[in-house]
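Explain this one:

_____
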Amino acid sequence: MKVKMKLIASLKIWVVIYPSITLFLYFLGEPLAVLPLYLRTFILTLTLVPWIVFVGVPFVDSIIRLFSQTTEKR
C-alpha cells in the first residue's frame, strides 16, 4: 500500500512538473540562455518549486477529488 501511495504521489508531481517546465522553457528559455547553467537552474527551481507545491499539486488533488466524488455517486 505504501508503494502505491508513493507511486501516485510521484505521478501527480510529474503531471504538474512536466508541463510547467515545458512552458517555463518555452517562454523564458531563450532570454535565460545567456545566463550560466547554474543561474538558469536556480531561477527555474526558484519559480517552479513553489508553483508545484502550492498551486500545481493542490490543483491536481482537487481534480482527482472531483472525479472520485463523481465516481462514488454512480
Residues 2-73 form one domain. The chain has two helices and no strands.
